[in-house]
Amino acid sequence: MTKPILVVGAGPAGLAAAHSLASVGQKVILVEKEDTLGGAPILSGYAKLVPSGEWAKDAIGSMVDRVVKNKLITVHKGMTVNKYTGNSGAFKAELSSGKSVSVGATILCTGFTHFDSVNKPEWGFGTYPDVVTTTQVEQMISSGKGVRRMSNGEKPKRVAILLCVGSRDRQIGREWCSKICCSVSANLAIEIREELPDCHVYIYYMDIRTFGLYEEVYWQSQEEHKVKYIKARIAEVTSDGDKIIVKGEDTLVKRPITIPFDLVVHAIGMDPNVDNMLISSIFGVDLHHWGFLKQENMYGTAGASSRAGVFVAGSSTGPETIDDSIAQGNAAAMSALASVSKIAAE
Ligand SMILES: Cc1cc2nc3c(=O)[nH]c(=O)nc-3n(C[C@H](O)[C@H](O)[C@H](O)COP(=O)(O)OP(=O)(O)OC[C@H]3O[C@@H](n4cnc5c(N)ncnc54)[C@H](O)[C@@H]3O)c2cc1C
Ligand code: SF4
């Protein structure tokens, strides 16, 4: 009989890992620091997901349901792991409640932190109420309130979505592409146009990275929903007291452009979890030099970290989509299971 496997974090990756393990009869202890399960799509109130078009609360909600109903999975909400000792096959984890659990392996699915747009002050967030983030627009849509100006509650007539906010930006120490924000922005632009057919939506971009099947939403946004794309370098975002003014250079025609908008949306990127230094020291795993949890032996053992018996999955390891986070959670579950089964057989 093998010991339970600990899964830390109940976002898409952790929920997938816990479910996979339980579906082959393996006991799981799932520890989530928030009081609600589901990770970023639920905690941040995402609207319709790309590429499936399903509402986040339904798609991820069903992942939560099957985990909480599974008798092989013990869920600890509102809790963290404070201390972690032992070796592969025989670890001891001390929870923030003071309870200790013995586990054979651990999968860290502790996710990411949304980029805080106040770190890009020249683009107006925190100064002008009508400069918001993609997560705020997701919440406007998913709450049913609809997309409105923050300053006066009016329906916007012109919206700009600025891509790569907090990504691909060496000046603020964020070199990585956050992978999902081009697709999320094209999808949000469609949702805005569906709700407000008279509203003009512009997307300011450096490059469009709607990889793989996500490219569909890029074409749909232009051809069916008349979203306009501007290849530009943005200089600054200011206000005339009512409108938000986006100033920059159209890099295709090499001319300065200044356009007033009612609402400007930052397509925020995916930062490493702000707690990663602490997570790394508690679990004794290395970090990638950009601050995400480091994967080792990438082509040998799925989800291996620098410590035997501790695995990593999902956006804790770098910007990831939901479907890839789920796939990584499932793959790490297989590796964790193999590690405890091998020890049990020895
Ligand atoms: C605005 C926006 C929209 C997006 N929309 C889409 C989309 O439509 N489609 C798509 O494929 N992707 C989308 N994404 C990406 C998506 O959010 C991620 O792919 C997904 O959330 C990753 O899942 P995860 O389980 O790895 O991490 P998370 O969702 O971040 O979950 C991690 C969980 O771990 C918990 N946790 C963290 N630290 C600890 C700790 N120390 N102890 C215990 N628990 C802890 C957290 O509370 C959280 O519940 C979007 C991203 C953004 C920024
Ligand atoms: S996915 Fe698009 S918006 Fe996001 S960082 Fe990459 S290029 Fe920029």
Radius of gyration: 22 Å
Low-pLDDT sequence parts? none
What compounds are bound to the protein? flavin-adenine dinucleotide, iron/sulfur cluster
Q: What is the chain-wise order of helices and strands?
A: EHEHHEEEEEEEHEHEHEEEEEHEH
Which geometry do the CA atoms define? elongated
Q: Would you mind describing this structure in some detail?
A:
The protein is elongated. The protein is of the alpha/beta class and 346 residues long. Helix 6 links the parallel strand 11 and strand 12. 27% of the residues lie in helices and 26% in strands. It has two domains: 180 residues, 3-Layer(bba) Sandwich (FAD/NAD(P)-binding domain); 154 residues, FAD/NAD(P)-binding domain. Helix 1 packs parallel to helix 3, helix 1 crosses helix 8 and helix 4 crosses helix 5. The two termini are 12 Å apart. Iron/sulfur cluster binds next to strand 10 and helix 5.
Please supply descriptive tags for the structure shown above.
binds flavin-adenine dinucleotide; 2 domains; elongated; FAD/NAD(P)-binding domain; binds iron/sulfur cluster; 346 residues
Give the topology, please.
Elements: E1 5-8, H1 12-23, E2 28-31, H2 40-43, H3 56-68, E3 73-76, E4 81-87, E5 90-95, E6 100-103, E7 105-108, E8 112-114, E9 131-133, H4 134-142, E10 158-165, H5 181-195, E11 200-205, H6 215-223, E12 228-239, E13 244-250, E14 255-261, E15 263-268, E16 270-272, H7 276-283, E17 310-312, H8 322-345
Parallel strand pairs: 1-2, 1-7, 2-3, 7-17, 9-15, 10-11, 10-15, 11-12
Antiparallel strand pairs: 4-5, 5-6, 8-16, 12-13, 13-14
Helix pairs in contact: 1-3, 1-8, 4-5, 5-6
